Protein: Lysophospholipase
Organism: Actinoplanes cyaneus
Amino acid sequence: MTDPRDQYASFLPADLRPDQALRPESTWWRRRDVEAHIERVRRPESPLRVLLIHGAGTHAAALWPLAGAIATRGVEVVVPDMPGYGRTRVGRPGRVRYDDWVAFAVDLARAEAAADPRPLVVFGTSMGGMIAYEVAARSGVVTAAGATCLLDTRDPAVRRHAARFRWLGAVARPALRTVAPVADNLRVPIRFLADMRAIANDPGLVRVVVADRLGGGGRVPLGFLRSFLQATPSVEPEDFTACPFLLTHPAADRWTPPELSIRFFDRIAAPKELVLLQNAGHYPVEAPGVHQLADALEEMRDRIIPG
């Protein structure tokens, strides 16, 4: 049986594919009614660690191309399966909301910081980008943060692009508020709500994601989508000074174009850097963009730990 990590990593340029000897270790972390599965690539010699947060439609194994590329450069990586995805078990999966993801990620960052004194960087992909922003803003334990996307759903353009159909994104907030009392816990296929066809620019990778029942082929509660669309950042970007922030948005993103993230990013008060990943789609596996992403994270490490 093919390891899903190898399946996803096969779409990377050959020089960035993780060595077969470099494999993550499965660990578990308990939080309330969540038994969280967390993949770790341990690097005791690394001066810092990176906490990777995935978005909707993916999971820890699906992030192996990015996690493996980072680990190959000598950095320790921690990648959880967020509630409702991957191998993480949830007591009541129909009740998972966006706020639960934020609280889960903040608590995990604090637990990781308490267990290991090395600096912690949090980095989010897709929807996970705003989760990383929230972790940095709320946890008090993050040295630096980054994201491939910063999707503020208060922006009507973000809502239109996030949904499977533009008209659905335009009406989703009022429609979901109306049906919330009776339909919030109803779990529906992700592809019914989100434009999973645009999650990657490589059709083969799209097929892998959509067929993956632990990620893009799974189901999500309508209440999760409603709470995501109604989310408000705990700290406005003009007041965000928690740590430096790196935005590495794919330049050829057909799902959420770079300008959607840049509008929010430009308002961040903290020291920041923008890198547009050339030729890369929403799931960035194309050269040279994925090389630019790995380079940007390596340069962030070197700024945090000179020499």
